Amino acid sequence: MEANSPEKIPFFRDPEKLSILYQFLSIVAVGLVSYYLVSNTLANLERQSISTGFGFFEREASFEIGESLIKYSAADSYGRALAVGFLNTLIVSFIGIILTVILGTILGIARLSSNWLVSRLSAIYIEVFQDIPILLQLFFWYAFFYEMLPSPRQALNPFSGLFLCNRGLVFGIPEWHPAFKFMAAALVLGIVIALVLKRWAKARQERTGQIFPILKVSALLIIGLPLVVWLMTGMPTRMNVPTLQGFNFKGGLSISPEFTALLLGLVLYTAAFVAEVVRAGIQSVSKGQTEAALSIGLKPTHVLNLVILPQALRVIIPPLTSQLLNLTKNSSLAVAIGYPDFVSVAGTTINQTGQAIEGVAMIMIVYLVFSLSTSAFMNWYNKRIALVER
């Protein structure tokens, strides 16, 4: 036997082989548990003569939904009703995320302001809204709209075409005109050109050091192009103005108290946590970076946009993603104030059809899709802004 030959390790002491064995046993255990749960559930459903499957999607829903982004009536199918709930959840989550990021960023920066009053007001906001449960905030805003605001006949009318009452916010909108299609195309074109200009301006600045006024030019393109199209198509200005008919308003666009209360509660609550994330991210950048930027003559706004935020975002993005996911999942509390989100519509569907397993499974899948989509976008953005070492 050679002296340098490796000693043979027994199977029960080999870490690599044991890890493979443990993984195999774990998979087998999960499979057996899953098989038991599924088979037991199917047996119980069969014993109680409860049908399974998603065939109920085609049956008539027979219930109304107060708010819908698409046409819907009680004569439509359960599938369309669930689509209405999905879109309602999507719109409140999408708008809520945008407003939360904007408000949270402003509050986080204000929290570090050298102005004592601005800093204290931001701190008070953060402490108050973090310490009040989100459900209580939803109840407060819901009660505010229904108890504190007047009826439609005594609606507040700050200016022509805008009414605020316990039925919600009602305001005039432009009547449809073919020019709006071309204005939308011009808006998209302006955004595309602005994005191309941004990449060119960044490459030019890295090459020559010259700063291009990308914000002003982008704003001019995004606003100016649709405005030019509007001028060229005859400047349509006819409005669909709401008018009081009976006990409610007709015409215009109405935003319900339920939607407004839900959006306000989600945004104001989550923005308090986002503000602390932004504050922590900014403070993670050493003061020497700020002092160095100021010493070479950069303006405070340029220091924030070009020096501090690009470095702070590496710290901000991961916890910010968690807060945005929390906002999306907290939107399921809409059922408490009567907003017809996906959970509310799915709950009504379960009560009428008895398809509890399918209903709960759909709720889980929908929120899983929302969460994974948000995480995927934030991870993509995180990689995009990551500082590349050279």
TrEMBL record:
Chain segments annotated as coiled-coil in the UniProt record: none
Protein's cellular compartments: Cell inner membrane; Cell membrane
Segments passing through the bilayer: 20-38, 81-110, 122-143, 179-197, 217-239, 259-282, 360-381
All copies of domain ABC transmembrane type-1, residue ranges: 86-378
Listed InterPro entries: AA_ABC_transptr_permease_3TM, ArtM/GltK/GlnP/TcyL/YhdX-like, MetI-like, MetI-like_sf
GO molecular function: transmembrane transporter activity
Keywords: Amino-acid transport, Cell membrane, Membrane, Transmembrane, Transmembrane helix, Transport
Keyword Transmembrane: yes
GO cellular component, as recorded: ATP-binding cassette (ABC) transporter complex
Membrane topology: Multi-pass membrane protein
RNA-binding keyword on record: no
Gene Ontology biological process terms in this record: amino acid transport
Family recorded in the similarity comment: Belongs to the binding-protein-dependent transport system permease family. HisMQ subfamily.
NCBIfam families in alphabetical order: HEQRo_perm_3TM (TIGR01726)
Protein name (Swiss-Prot/TrEMBL): AapQ
